[in-house]
Structures are given as structure tokens and as C-alpha cells.
Design a protein that fits this description.
Two copies of one chain form a homodimer.
Chain A lengths: L3 E7 L12 E7 L8 E9 L4 H4 L20 E8 L9 E4 L6 E4 L5 E3 L15 H14 L6 E5 L6 H10 L3 E6 L2 H10 L4 E4 H4 L3 H8 L4 E5 L4 H7 L3 E9 L17 H6 L3 E4 L10 H12 L7 E5 L4 H9 L6 E5 L8
Parallel strand pairs in A: 8-9, 8-11, 9-10, 11-12, 12-13, 14-15
Antiparallel strand pairs in A: 1-2, 3-4, 3-6, 3-15, 4-5, 5-7
Helix pairs in contact in A: 2-3
């Protein structure tokens, strides 16, 4: 247990790509829990693309981070001291305490974790927010039917990897888009996708590479990236195709608007595009909880973690995430995980 | 009965706006019905924006018109001679015989009309394809709830006028966008919309005018036009808004792609955009038939026809339609209507 609460604050708002200068490492006294609260230490901290939007001033779908406050984000931790009868010292919890080593909470929205059910870090990936994102977008918007072709961008990432594996479990052809040979090999050989296209290697040949991997066209495009990948995919959508719009990571650092596709394409092909954010749907995830944790334990759904040790390295790791440098779910290990051998 | 079949053929494909030179008026012998067929004379011919796409070479959602063939389109006619036991001389029918004064048909997809149930011309407007388009897009994609705000562009037209009236019947605030004071007055005073904005008069003030008319934001935008109207509306959509994408008339004459909005807008607001064409849904229109014809007879849904006499005037009238010159459902009267006083 460190003597201080180590925090990463938002120091200034980025214009375009964030730099480490937008963040500030800062120690503060460890807070004391009041009656009804508990104090936890952070073990795992999640870094996710949506956090880029929280750094801006502009209205997004959630409140922005105020300058001088810790960055927000999901965490897995352990209770150190409790004045709340629902939480005991030593309990493992998934919470939303942000980029800091310690936090107090009244327990609202906090989930207790059973280390025997799944590794506690997966509460930030495949059986946490990214897994739910994949499940909700694919099932509720994509509505996959056996024999259909599902394409997902950022396919080796925390969301994309689950999308493709769920699609396979439903009898669909799953095609990933990822950056680099290692990621594509992993997506096909480890995760079992039918194909994966390296958008960096293909360059201007991307359209043709997608066509070769999707000989029957594309029924569902799970959108995580936007930009050139989207432009190559949309003309290859089949009539009545569905596009769960989950993220647009290639545009998050853009300082100007990024024009989208001509809507005549959506009209002629009768496409549906639906933007969504998983936190709107946390209360209607019943089917997710029935299916996904068991599939992870049974090995039908695999996952990969990209672990960076030390909270001080979070800014650099986050900047890399926006550039696709991570390989698997990006986690910051802030403290010791006693459940891990 | 004329001695010849008067036809309007597609002579050449337009680049951008069509001109009368793209069409050719041509007489041909009146065809003879074979066994199982009937011959009809055209009384009413429908002109609709979608026909612009049929003039192109590019793939649309239906087959293009071949050069030298009559333009396609919905018609209302009367049987002159029949060798099909289901159709008798004198029967009124709604069919899809295109821009010509006479046609033979085997009766597939043809609907018999009862002049006592509704004026036969309305089979081309409010109780025909445009009315079904309004109903399907609003109900199946828009899913209006009482108290929501519904905005529809081309509000005085065959589709838009029904969208707004159906929205009002469901307890929504209905706001139209139309071009010119006369149309806006009609939309509010005759059709009962809550407000209508003259996009031509407002010009660069359009965004503010829409905001004033939609103080609670916009829940459903029924899209018929695209372009500047769309650009002013999208930022005013409420979270979880729905956009039935029915048409993009402002873009139909464009020779290059028209960039659409930044998808970050769809993502942040969790909007759904769904392109549709009513002919995909003709077999699932049961609720439409229960509601709309009775509402038209009862006066809860009103309509307006813009009648141009003479098939030779169809090209000029169609060109005007694409510029918004019509006021109400544009019909060509090709022959005498004995059911009209």
C-alpha cells in the first residue's frame, strides 16, 4: 500500500492528437471513507478509445472531464477499508474510479467479482464493458442470421474480437480488419475468424481485399474506426445491411468535421446505421450474462490482454491506443493482483 | 378512345438535371390482349421523384429504364377489352403501366378499385404508394410516441403531407419543411401541422427557424430531401432519434457524390438512419389498409392533387417536380375520368 493516492489528471485539452503534456501525474492524500463508503486500491485500470471524447470541451454522450480532475475510466480493485456493510476488506470489485491508485465509493454501480468465476481483469474486457458493447451492438442492431457475413474493424481489440467470435458462434462468416500481420494472424488462428485483412498492408488495395474475403457481400458491418476502412466497406454492403455504429477511432483526433458517405448509398441499399453506447443498455444485458461468461470459461470465446505496468505509463499507453499500437485489451496494472499466479 | 398508343419514351440519359430532350413522344399501335390479358386505357399517371433514378445507368434499387422504352410509373386506368376472367370491361384498376395511354397486362400486381370507396386517383397518392411510403417509414422506422416532435421535409408533397397528419393523429408535434409561403400555409391551415418552415425564405436562418419550431428538439426526421435542410436538422436531433430515409430529392440530379454528415453526430446522439423503399413492404401493409382509407374518407387525413392535363406534358411536369414546382401530389390526366363530376 502506497502512502499517497497516485492520480493522472487532465491538465489541458488536446487539439487533435493528445500528448503526454495534456496529462499531469499528481499525488494526493489517500481519502478516508465516510459512513456508508469504502476505500479501495486499484489493481487494473482500463484504457478505452471513448476516453478521447471525455478530454474535449464539446458535448459528447457523457460529461467531459474537468481540467484538474483525474481521467475517468473503469477499474478493478480491492477493498482496503469499509464502512459499508455490503463491502468487506479484501473484496474484489469492478468500479468506475478513474485514473488513480485509490478511491472511495458508496458502492453505487459497483459490481463484486468472484475470482473463481473468471479472472478479475476480464471485468474490464470480455465479461465487462467491451464484451457487452460487442454483444449488444451485434445482437440488438446487427441481428445476425446464420450464413450472413459480418465484418468488424479493430478486430483484434477488446470489442472487435468478441464481435467476430459471437458471429462465428451464430453461424456467420466473420471477417476482421486489423492493422498488421501479427494482429491478423491472431484474429484468424487464435480467435477463429474466417479471414482478417491488414488494412495497413493493403493500402489502396483495401477494397479488393475486402471483396475477396467477402464473396457474398457484407450483411453486418460493426463499425469501430470510420475513415478509409469504412469507405472501402460501405459500397460492398448487401441490401438491407445493418451497421452497428460503435466507434470512429480514426476520427477522434480530427479537429474538423469528417464528411460521411453519400446517403444515397444508404437509401439505395436500404441500410440501417445505428449509433449506440453500451452504458444506455446496462440494465437490459440479461442474455449477455447468460451466454458470455460461460463461453469464456468454456474457451469458445477467447481474449487477449495487453498489459502495461504502472499508472504513470497510462498517458503514453493511451496515446498509443488511439494509434492502434496495443494488441488486445489495453490494461494498466496499477497494483498487485493476488488472484493471478 | 384514341386510335394509337401515345407513349413517352426515354430517349437519352440525363447528366444532372433532365431536360425535355431526354424524352420522346411517340405513337405506336394499340396492343391486342392475348389470352389471359386485358387492355386498359390510362386515366391517371403518377409522377414521383424516384423516377429520376430510373433514368440513370447506375445501379439503383430497381431496374433502370432502357433507352427507347416508355418511362415507368404507377397508373390508374380502365379496362377496355379483357381476355382475363378476373377483369371486366369498365373495371377501374391501379397498375404500373408507365408513361403511355394504353397497356396490356396479365393482371399480376394489379389492384381493382372501387370508386365508391375513394376517388380512383387517390390510388396513386394517399391510399397508394406515397401514402404507404409515409405510413411504413413513420410507423416502422420512426416509431412515434405521443409528445415527440416529428419533422418532415417536402411536407406539402404526396408523402410528407401524410407523414405529418399521421404524426398528429399519434399525438406528436408535426413540423413541416416546404418551399414557399403557399405550401407552408396549406400545411398548417389545411393539413393541421403545428408549424411549417419555408426553407427558401429562411435561407441561412434555417437552423434558427427550425429551433424555434422545435423547442424540445427533434425525435423523428422523415427525410425526403437531403442537402441544406438535412444539414440544419441533424444537429437538432434528440438522443435516440430516428431518421426514416425515404428520399434525397436535392441530390438526385447531382453528378458527383454528395458527402453526408460526420458520423460522430450519429454516434454521440445514438441516432438510427434507415433507408427504405416501400415496394419491399407491400405485403406487410395490413395496418395501413385498416387505418388510412377510412381516415381519408372521414377527413382526418387530407390530400391535395396537382393535376396536369395531357400525357405530352409529362416531361415538363416531371422536371418541375424535381425542382419542387408542384403543389400536392403531381398527376398527369391522360384520359377522361368518368367517376369525377
Amino acid at each position: 500500500m502506497t502512502a499517497m493516492n497516485r492520480r493522472v489528471l487532465l491538465k489541458s485539452r488536446p487539439s487533435g492528437e493528445p500528448t503526454v503534456a495534456n496529462f499531469e501525474i499528481s499525488d494526493a492524500p489517500i481519502p478516508e471513507p465516510k459512513e456508508g463508503e469504502y476505500l479501495s486500491r486499484t489493481i487494473w485500470m482500463s484504457l478505452d478509445p471513448y476516453m478521447r471524447g471525455r478530454m474535449d470541451d464539446a458535448k459528447g454522450y457523457a460529461a467531459n472531464v474537468n481540467l484538474g480532475d483525474p481521467m475517468v475510466g473503469g477499474t478493478v480493485g480491492q477493498v482496503l477499508k469499509s464502512r459499508n456493510p455490503k463491502f468487506k476488506e479484501g473484496d474484489y470489485i469492478a468500479e468506475f474510479s478513474g485514473w488513480q491508485s485509490h478511491a472511495v465509493s458508496n458502492g453505487a454501480g459497483v459490481m463484486k467479482l468472484d475470482p473463481a468465476a473468471a479472472p478479475i481483469s476480464t471485468a474490464l474486457s470480455v465479461v465487462g464493458m467491451p464484451g457487452m458493447t460487442a454483444w449488444w451492438g451485434l445482437m440488438q442492431i446487427g441481428k445476425p442470421k446464420a450464413g450472413e457475413t459480418v465484418v468488424v474493424s479493430a478486430a483484434s481489440g477488446a470489442v472487435g474480437s468478441v464481435v467476430g467470435q459471437l458471429a462465428r458462434l451464430r453461424g456467420c462468416r466473420a471477417v476482421g480488419i486489423a492493422g498488421g500481420k501479427d494482429k491478423c494472424d491472431y484474429v484468424v488462428k487464435e480467435l477463429g475468424f474466417d479471414a482478417c485483412i491488414d488494412y495497413r498492408a493493403e493500402g489502396t488495395n483495401l477494397f479488393k481485399a475486402i471483396r475477396a474475403a467477402c464473396p457474398k457481400g457484407i450483411d453486418i458491418y460493426f463499425e469501430n474506426v470510420g475513415g478509409a476502412v469504412q469507405a472501402a466497406i460501405l459500397p460492398q454492403m448487401n441490401d438491407f445491411g445493418r451497421i452497428p455504429l460503435c466507434g470512429l477511432i480514426s476520427q477522434y483526433n480530427a479537429t474538423a468535421m469528417s464528411p460521411g458517405p453519400d446517403w444515397r448509398l444508404l437509401l439505395i441499399k436500404r441500410l440501417t446505421v445505428s449509433g449506440f453506447i453500451v452504458s444506455d443498455h446496462f440494465t437490459t444485458m440479461g442474455e449477455f450474462w447468460k451466454e458470455v461468461p460461460a463461453a469464456v470459461r468454456g474457451g469458445q470465446i477467447k481474449y487477449r490482454e495487453d498489459i502495461v505496468k504502472g499508472i504513470d505509463n497510462a498517458p503514453e499507453a493511451f496515446i498509443g491506443l488511439l494509434k492502434g499500437r496495443n494488441f488486445g485489451k489495453l490494461l494498466i496494472q496499477v497494483g498487485d493482483d493476488p488472484t493471478r499466479k
